[in-house]
Amino acid sequence: MKKIFITFIVLFFGLAGFAADYNTYKLENGQTVIIKEVHDNPMVIIDTWINTGSVNETDKNTGVAHFLEHLFFKGTLKHPAKDFDRILESKGAITNAATSKDFTHYYILIPSKYFNLAMDLHSDMLLNPLIPRKELEKERKVVLEEISKNNDNPTTVMYNKMNDAMYKIHPYKREVIGTRNVIETIPREDIMEFYNKWYVPSNMTTVIVGDVDSEKALNSVKKYFVKEGNVAQKAPKAIYKMDKKPSRPVEITTPFKVETAYMVLGFKGCQNAKSKDSYSLDLLATILGDGKTSRLYKTLKEQKQLVYSIGSGHSSYKQDSTFYVTANFAPENADKIKDSTLAEINKIKLKGVDEEELEKAKKIVERDTYYSRESISNIANEIGYTMILTGDSDYYANYLNNMKKVTVQDVQNAAKQYLDTNSMVESVIMPENVKLADKKDSTKKDYSAKVISQNGNIIKYELQNGADLIINHNKSNDIVAMDISVKGGNFTEKIKGLGTVTADAMLKGTQKYTTQELALMLEETGVRIVPQAKADTFSIGVKYTANERDTAFDLLNEVLNNANLDAYDIEKVKKDKMDNIKKTRDNPTSVVFEEFKTAMWDGTAYGNSGKVLEKTIPSIKQNDVKVFYDGLFSPKNIVISVNGNVDDKTLINYFSQLFSTKQNAHKVVLANYSSQFTPKNQNLLVKTPKDTQTAWIVIGWRVNGVLNKKDWATLQVIDSLLGGGMSSRLFTELRDQEGLAYQVGSTYAPNFNKGAFAVYIGTNPKTAIVARDGLMSEITKLKKEFVGDKELTQAKDKLLGNYVLSLETNMDKASTIGWFEVSDRGYMFMNEFPKLIESVTVQDIISTANKYFSEPYVMSVVGPKAVVDKF
Asked: How far is CA 745 from CA 90, 363, 536, 718, 801, in A?
């Protein structure tokens, strides 16, 4: 769209630009404001980007930008500490921040009726932070714990090692999180000096996306973003000398406490994100390593089976970029992977890519961008990021058009210029013990369907084959989302893990399409089909744009009715599952929850943890998968939830025919499986020694299933009270007050027959016992003391606000409605949900807490042996 400039003679701003369907304003104080109206859902995001990050730090204050990000939430004169979180979370808002090398940004996602409240709090926090010394010291502990956690993450260490080799002079050499010695000692005066230097309106870009009126939103920014005595102050312009690319290949191997190996091959990219080279590198990354039809996936994963996963990317900074290839694999394959990867890169450098391959990559990028821009959070993030990156508000609107101009020669030239193996940086993490066809018209036959009920835009049909079809008519965009849920899930498996193996095997080729052809069709058209085995259901998520309906129908029919389920492919799926179980254990957080799940659901269909599956998956045979698949899609067990601008008759005909041959399976009644869940007689403690810098604790109880609606609603409120964000009890008491935790919270998993409620914490091993006692103390308090009316109201408002935000996309709505229906609560539970939450009383909370939290619990502990032995 042609850029139009209009001059306004109005106080506070002078120039506004209209690009695509958003407006860009420059206020008199220098602040940039970008507003995009999206009225599909009653929500809005306010996202302010500060044009500073670790790039503006020195060796003496490294990490200060990230530390400062943590400290903004500690109050102002107008809003004392904790008020910010309590007020916003009481409205169901989601608020957070992030720091990178070039920027720091702070955002609030909130129901749009609270926009002015959010703007008031957001601007006050950014312009007038108090940063009390007491709060600073508490947060210092949190950041130090975060540094420890980073040191436990193999991929973080891998990327940091690559970065160290690429940057010796430029400030990009510093880690965003900072170093322990600086964070331990940096005084408040140095932090405030950094804040006063960079946090001025002229160095800020505020992006507003959502259900707002642009003029009113702009007036709100002008009203609240006023920094007294500092209206026109400008941040200094910093120019840094850029490092040259390495003069020879750099190889870095780091021994680590992992079971699998990780590799990144990095190359210095272009220094201008708006150049044609930048677009060319984006497309090159897609061709080389984005998805199952990419060159690296087909060669190293499918053909040679050298990797568990592989991909490539192009990451841009303001002054530089990095092109990289990453892989996760068995340690013995390291050299083969490197050689095979470089061979694929050399093919492109020598022979280039063909037009068909480039056009496919452009379609993938275009489709991913289109899907991403369905969410206002993603829109704001993309606009803000590209504004910081390029200083051009039109970059966001013009990205796809500029990308389409890239030629095959441009891609080859970029590969030759930037993917220079003589200056490549190789960073590897190794385990310590390792040495170095025609489409069918599915709408021809005319089927009838019975209307069961209607509520607003939602209609429920019963199809002739017995399946339930629920259609939520939504004409706001051309995206159609479907959730197909089959009752039974893990309960119908004869061998644990059979469902998850079948789900992946279904996408390994059909009678009409080979594995590669199926993957190619999905990527080129943007159709998404995601089978997934769950506790109570086997689900298939489907997403497509209206113009790809026939393709989506054809592919879904192939996957559900004509999957090959080849023995060789099934063995590959099984191997991938086993490899992934190993990989997850490199993360202590995954381990503590894996052990908790195993102990909590021992012997039941809900207990498919990695610890269980690694014993059962190897025994699964091809015939087991075929029998499970053949009996899976009986329409009498199926609920189909559709959200989008669709024709009812077309869907009725399609789904009536789709499942017409699947009539043999018995009808599944989930309640009939309730006998599996015998009560636990005593507390169970699971101790897992692991050489980590953090200790993790999970304590949980079994609770009733979702049909006990009163208990379900009360437990939702309890979850909000205990662990729902930065104003929750666990966060306030154990993280803010005691400084015990980097990560703390609660989680509620409400299954059909039985659910689980748990509290968890990640802490310094030295304070693990104190942290455990703190968790139990909060549970005891909940059982003995009535919750205050104000706190209860805030917890409910938070839940209801989160509920609104959780239904943003078509797929969000389709899957939520599908789960409500398949769990026997009905699709109109969407309307009942808020009423149930509002009905919860303080008496309900104390009685429900005593009902469940007085029963035997399961405790899972992961940490150094000397620590877990004390439990």
From this structure: 17, 41, 25, 11, 19
> Rounded to an integer, what is the distance from CA 228 to the centroid of its chain?
38
pLDDT band at 224 (very low <50, low <70, confident <90, very high): very high
Encoded amino acid at 614, one letter = E
User: Residue 24 belongs to what H/E stretch?
Assistant: strand 22-27
User: Of 527, 533, 532, which is closest to residue 557 (Cα–Cα)?
Assistant: 527
Question: What are the tens digits of pLDDT across the range 254-310?
Answer: 999 999 999 999 999 999 999 999 999 999 999 999 989 999 999 999 999 999 999
Element (H, E) at 696: strand 695-704
- Residue 197 tokens, joined: 């230097």
Paired with 15 in beta bridges are 7, 26
pTM of the model: 0.88
Span 412-426, mean pLDDT? 95
Range 375-398 burial, b when 16+ CB lie within 10 A, else e? bbbbbbbbbbbbbbbbeebbbbbb
CB 328 within 8 A of CB 307: yes
Where does 229-375 have alpha helices with state H?
276-289, 295-296, 334-351, 355-372
Q: How crowded is residue 138: how many other Cβ atoms within 10 Å of its Cβ? A: 17
**What letter would DSSP give residue 858?**
E
Amino acid at 358: L
Which ranges in 352-431 belong to alpha helices (H)? 355-372, 376-390, 394-404, 408-418
Place of tokens 């807490």: 849
Long-range contacts of 525-528 (CB under 8 A, 24+ apart): 525/551, 525/552, 526/363, 526/364, 526/367, 526/370, 526/371, 527/551, 527/552, 527/555
**Which tokens hold the place of 731?**
């966060």
Using CA atoms, how far apart are residues 303 and 519, in angstroms rounded to an integer? 15
pLDDT at residue 82 above 90? no
Beta partners for residue 532, in sequence order = 539
Burial class for 4, CB neighbours closer than 10 Å (0-12, 13-18, 19+) = exposed
What's the pLDDT at 3?
25
| Cβ atoms of residues 740 and 763 within 8 Å | yes
Residue 334 token pair: 């390291």
Place of tokens 């060669």: 299
Question: 136, 69 in Cβ contact below 8 A?
Answer: no
